[in-house]
Amino acid sequence: MVEKVLMCGNGAVGEGAIQAGCRHYFGYPITPQNELTAYMAERLGELGGVFIQSESELAAINMVFGASASGARAMTSSSSPGISLKQEGISYIAAAELPCVIVNIMRAGPGLGDITPSQADYFQAVKGGGHGDYRLITIGPASVQELYDWTAKAFYLADKYRNPVMILGDGFLGQMMEPLEVKKIEELKLPPKTWALTGAKDRSANIIRTLMLKVGELEEHNKKIQDKYKRIEKELIEYEAVLTDDAEIILVAYGTCARICKESVFLLRKEGIKAGLIRPITLWPYPSAVIRKISNNIKCILTVEMNAGQMVEDVKLAVMGRCPVHFYGRMGGGVPTSKEIVDEIKGLEIK
Amino acid sequence: MKKIFGKPECMTDKPFHYCPGCGHGIVHRLIGEVVDELGIQDRTIGVPPVGCAVVMYHYFNIDMTEAPHGRTPAVATGIKRVHPDKVVFTYQGDGDLAAIGTGEIIHAANRGERITTIFVNNAVYGMTGGQMAPTTLVGQKTTTTPLGRDARLIGYPIKISEMLAITDGSIYIERVAVNKPANIIKAKKAIKKAFQIQLEDRGFSMVEVLSQCPVNLGLTSQKAAEWIDNTLMKTYPLGVIKDKSGE
Ligand SMILES: Cc1ncc(C[n+]2csc(CCOP(=O)(O)OP(=O)(O)O)c2C)c(N)n1
Ligand code: SF4
């Protein structure tokens, strides 16, 4: 029997990491993810792992860089302003093709903003965020169980693709309590990390670098990582579809907003309005093809986010004008209610 | 024929890219000799800086990783915490360590990270073309202090070794120079001691090396070496700044 416990989302992320074999965590306190930092301090203390409360997010992400370069499964977590600080390091990690997991329990911005939940870091997660052309595999879980499952899986994906993975939650998901099945994490086969820094014993030196000065070398490297991204786009897309088969109106939302939208779909159905939901789980790679396909057969899409309209750009790119794409958003810590969304749909001019 | 002089075993045959008269090559060589003498080539991991020494990894048969500018001690911390049995060092210029990376070096020292830092103080930014460093002397001309460093506007040369010495995690800090043979011999002793302290798992160790950057000082190699003796050492005197290794 799998153990079932009541846990907050932040704790579930931590336990997922532990179960996936992460023994190196580096972080700097920030609300609303502090439970995660404290959880890692406690669990890694019990297990003889490495926990460092770093002097800043800059230091934390670069400790992850060093630990990952040394072959360890390493993680850091933060919330929006701290993720902004980590972006330089994330760019280096992506460029050096090092695996690691970065957790962003988003809060409202811009600036210091508020500690209330938000989805306003979608852009800085899926569009690169730091300098240069790179991608983070970005996961948007919508429950405590999914935070656990996907954090554990994130370590595997990071190793498999040698790429940083971001778990993109929000203050709501991080702090709410739900029952959690602490499932055993199956160790999947991965190639040995022959590139890791372990000391040049009986082999030539391993060098991890992102500086490429020879003419054409950096362009070649960029092409190589872009090819990898294409492979990830082919292999990794995950989403949930709710009542989409006969739907005339499709809601698109992820994370907390998707949970609320699901309820809105049921409310609308009760009133005879044929609504459905597409919930992207991988935010990058994005389930564009699914949205594109469905856009041929429906009246319109409503994208719901806790921001001023970020993911809606990807929805529009997927739809390419095949049907109208509307947006409903709350900002600055506002969380939409299912009723608000129902009213929004009823207020749309649907042809 | 008997070979009586050559490159250290742990170094490659690649010629240095440094300017004529630059101190970086000498410091590299000293590290190479120390690594050979301690027999630790196969368990040493280096973290070069962003600065003129950024491609230091070309010159050693030693595992190394790049680090973002100034984050060098944080990257080294991550490595050392995964591999406590390995010898981890950072190599940093005065911009990397004493300006953009001030936070990382202070906290690495204060945590007593078992790493060794080789801090190359040439009183100027070499790689970016001769701008002011935090260690630039008052009155010293650089491209960003064309009239000389004005202390009232931009403060004083920072004494980071002295600052790090007051952290409880630091065990050994010495300032040396590589401007003439007698100093080079002392510099090597200091570097060796700094690595030994790490091997003994004592805490943080650092050697500050006063080094010549003739190009950006606008001096000949010889004059740059003399400038270190006659001018730079007035602000940055050589000697042991902290040594708790005997305690
Ligand atoms: C974040 C960031 N800011 C600025 C730079 C540009 N930059 C490269 S090296 C350097 C200063 C190097 O000077 P120093 O550390 O004294 O080393 P030296 O070249 O003199 O050996 C600067 C400012 C950079 N690469 N990254
Ligand atoms: S610019 Fe200065 S520090 Fe850089 S290689 Fe030339 S002499 Fe050395």
Offer a few descriptive terms.
heterodimer; A: 351 residues; alpha/beta; Rossmann fold; 2 domains; 7-stranded mixed beta sheet; 5-stranded mixed beta sheet; 12 helices; 15 strands; 41% helix; globular; B: 247 residues; two-stranded antiparallel ribbon; 9 helices; 36% helix; binds thiamine diphosphate; binds iron/sulfur cluster
SS field, number of helical segments of chain B = 9
Number of domains of chain B: 1
Bound molecules: thiamine diphosphate, iron/sulfur cluster
Output the CATH class name of the largest domain in chain A: Alpha Beta
Q: Pick out the low-confidence regions of chain B.
A: none
Q: In CATH terms, what is the fold-level topology of chain B?
A: Rossmann fold
Word description of this protein:
The complex is a heterodimer of chains A (351) and B (247). Chain A is α/β, with parallel strands linked by helices and 351 residues long. Chain A has 2 domains: 3-235, Rossmann fold, CATH 3.40.50.970; 240-347, Rossmann fold (3-Layer(aba) Sandwich). Chain A is 41% helix and 20% strand. Chain A contains 12 helices and 15 strands. In chain A, strands 3-2-4-5-7-6-13 form a 7-stranded mixed beta sheet, with helices on both faces. In chain A, strands 10-12-11-14-15 form a 5-stranded mixed beta sheet, with helices on both faces. Chain A is globular, with a radius of gyration of 21 Å. Chain A starts with a strand and ends with a helix. With 247 residues, chain B is α/β, with parallel strands linked by helices. Chain B has a single domain (24-243), classed as Thiamin diphosphate (ThDP)-binding fold, Pyr/PP domains (Rossmann fold). In chain B, the strands form 2 sheets. Chain B has a 7-stranded mixed beta sheet with strand order 2-1-3-4-8-7-9, with helices on both faces. In chain B, helix 7 links the parallel strand 7 (170-177) and strand 8. In chain B, helix 1 crosses helix 7 and helix 3 packs across helix 4. The N and C termini of chain B lie far apart (47 Å). Chains A and B meet through helix 3, helix 4 and strand 9 of A and strand 1, strand 2, helix 2 and helix 4 of B. Strand 9 of chain A pairs parallel with strand 2 (63-65) of chain B, so a sheet runs across the interface. The complex binds thiamine diphosphate and iron/sulfur cluster (SF4). Residues 49-53, 69, 93-96, 120, 122, 125-128, 133 of chain B line the site of thiamine diphosphate.
